[in-house]
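Researcher: I need the complex structure. Ligand is beta-D-glucopyranose. Inputs:
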Amino acid sequence: MAGPSTDTTDVPSGLDFGIGIDVGGTWIKGAIINMGSGTPVGGVRRLRTPACGTVDAVANTLDQLIDELESESPGHSAPAVGVAIPSIVQHGVARSAANMDAGWIGLDVQAYLRERLGRPVCVVNDADAAGMAEAHYGVGKDKHGVVLVLTLGTGIGSALIVDGKLVPNFELGHLEVGGHKAESRASAVARENAGLNWIEYADRLQQYLSHVEFLFSPDLIIIGGGISECSNEYLPRLSLRAPVIPASLENSAGVVGAALQAAAA
Ligand code: BGC
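Model: Output:
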């Protein structure tokens, strides 16, 4: 299996279903995805992320999750498994490990998981997966130009999609803004930790997004992650040149995008 596709348009027509898995700091979510519609067959299932966060422990949980998904939906054969992780992923190799064990760094996670799970696996960055899902099935569909998808969660994930093609590993959560790493101030968890109300939080987001807009001039900004459910509270307070809209796939974007990347690879 080749590396992940960076194009939103190239899912092979024979592939009806794919398995998508999104590895987060607290939960590992997975679903069998109908590749035509981008919707989960039988819902999204989740298991707790092992507290140690090691590759080995996570691989065991993935194995269990895939077994559960396949026994729940026996009629839907899904050969390709996509796994989204909160790391820079360069040709299958993890180059960082936000909220995971440091043992991930430098490992060819894709080769390791193929061996462990005994099937084709495609490993991608979680925000890249979510971004591609929005561009293929969600509010980013058929949008041309420079589309920036940001996921606001434990950290800030970002995906840059230019005319439907992903520029992988665009780590904009790690930009320094006002002397701080952006995700330490403007992620959803940073808001909770600092006890900010929506007005205060919108101010922080404004500062961050103004900087991002100055650097990259996106034509459209899509905000995802769990916090996009409350987008009415902060999006109307933002003032940017580009339109800023909430993501439409909400919490399943990473799962859907992982399946999409695997199907296209
Ligand atoms: C990581 C990214 C990830 C994002 C969201 C950041 O801390 O560096 O790779 O996409 O969190 O999980």
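Model: Summary of the prediction. The mean pLDDT is 93.
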